[in-house]
Amino acid sequence: MKGGTVQINWHDTKPVLTLDFHPQSGILATGGADNDIKLWLVNSGEAQKKVPTASYQSCLSYHGSSVNILRFSPPGEHLASGADGGELLIWKLHATEAGQTWKVLKTLLFHRKDVLDLQWSTDGAYLISGSVDNSCIIWDANKGSVHQILDGHLHYVQGVAWDPLGHYVASLSSDRTCRIYMNKPPAKMKGLEKMNYVCQHVVSKAGQQLGDDNKTCKNHLFHDETLPSFFRRLAWSPDGSFLLIPAGSYKFSSTSDSVNTAYIFPRKDLSRPAVQLPGATKPIVAVRFCPIVFQLLDSKSDTYFKLPYRVVFAIATLNSVYIYDSQSVVPIAMFAGLHYAAITDIAWSCDAKYLALSSQDGYCSLVEFASEELGLPASLPEDKKVREESKNTTAQKLDGLVNTTTDNDCGSAVNRTDTGADKLIQASQSSLSTPVPSKPAKRRITPMAIDP
């Protein structure tokens, strides 16, 4: 793999707040504080053994304020973008004599304040948005109308995610809660149009046993509103087997300091986290799954999730990016020193060749993976996607201590700690607390990759 910051004029030197790859063409779309959406063609640097680059293609100008979030629909026909002031647009791809162009199809009006995150349903018929007005809205994309309002949060909604199987939606807020909503249509109503999401879980705190006593105390699982980011972008795995939630803040004991972490919630029990990923020096603000699953590695045992394939995902802190797979809690790569300001979003290309990230410093970084570097692709048939009753979605229960070490000392012991109401697989963060060294002004640092 090879990557680095692409030093071009992305958005007139203003912060780049979001990005996404088109699911078919691989075109990269970015949104920024200049109120525009720009489309880029990513050029491989593999032949020259250089960092990949990006070539400007076109600009979509319509928003009147900063574009905080954009996502292509899974079929690729539409692009949704959310901005300050509650602006939410749906763009449609049109064929022209000169090629293709995007035009505004619908303006979705209801949010009263900034839209911070959004996610499409798998079929592209609906989308969910989260806003500074403390609400989530499920929209009918075809009608351009509000389908349902979810207003349970008490502070900004900074992340939303739509279950690829359509049974759940999830939202993460600076009120330190993650809400899981389940689709429960009224008994007399049938059809997708009658879907109705009701809150099934409000995840906020975890119980922890105090000494030898039977008493427990509960600590918050997530950062409060002082987190220095407007984004807490959570995500479902492509098969729906688990939900990955950022902005974690966990205490190993009642007297210890909180560590930054991300939690994995297995589909079978979304009421509590099953896995805590190693803590980082900075808060985690975004997570994103690779759209392709890979064959299992013979050299690793699938310790935590009994999946017939490997799921790869990226976790972005304010200043670094970790890449993991589902066979280990030890990251397979880490990039640091890429930007001078906070990372705002991450995205994978449809063929898993590129990973892109945006930053408040006005630049984007691109990472290019060699062919089969992440592994051999595995098939994910529709009928193999995880169902509610599937046992493949649960984290394997572990007893005692499991040692996971690597040659570069990137990993450490993993144990299962009884926290009273919750049992959590926790990974030591000490070996992964790699602060970014101070850098002189105007100097870019080549990212470092740590391979297992």
TrEMBL record:
Keywords from the UniProt entry: Chromatin regulator, DNA damage, DNA recombination, DNA repair, Nucleus, Repeat, Transcription, Transcription regulation, WD repeat
Compartments, record wording: Nucleus
Origin superkingdom: Eukaryota
Biased composition (Polar residues): 426-436
Annotated PROSITE patterns: WD_REPEATS_2 (PS50082), WD_REPEATS_REGION (PS50294)
Domain CAF1B/HIR1 beta-propeller: start-end pairs: 1-374
Repeat keyword on record: yes
GO cellular component terms, A-Z: CAF-1 complex; nucleus
Chain residue ranges for the region called Disordered: 426-452
InterPro entries reported in the protein's UniProt record: Beta-prop_CAF1B_HIR1, PTHR15271, WD40/YVTN_repeat-like_dom_sf, WD40_G-protein_beta-like, WD40_repeat_dom_sf, WD40_rpt
Entry similarity comment: Belongs to the WD repeat HIR1 family.
Protein name: CAF-1 p60 homolog
Naturally occurring in which organism (per UniProt): Protea cynaroides
